[in-house]
Amino acid sequence: MCQIHGIIKEALDFPEFYGANYSALWDCMRDYCNDMTVEIKGLATLPPDFSDFKEAILNIFKHTARENNFTYTIIS
User: Fold this and answer.
1) Run of H or E including 6
2) Which of 37, 4, 39, 36 lies closest to 18, judged by CA?
3) Cα first-last separation, the chain
4) pLDDT tens string for the chain (76 positions)?
5) Are the CB atoms for 20 and 3 separated by under 8 Å?
6) What does pTM read for this prediction?
7) Which CATH number fits domain 2-74: 3.10.20.310, 3.30.230.10, 3.30.370.10, 2.40.40.20?
């Protein structure tokens, strides 16, 4: 799962100190993802054992969308 956090970090241009966990994702989304639109690709290709991880990540994206000027679209 750290690999996915690395992809998110790079795609959203998070700072070097990004902690690669849900709390750090929430903090960085809140602080660095204003006025941003993101397309999420490959979500459907994650194995079933990633369902809890996928749900947690999408929850963070939903909360960020409510609090910031942030939008996201799930492509696949």
Assistant:
1) helix 2-11
2) 4
3) 19
4) 678 899 999 999 999 999 999 999 999 999 999 999 999 998 889 899 989 999 999 999 999 999 888 999 999 7
5) no
6) 0.85
7) 3.30.370.10
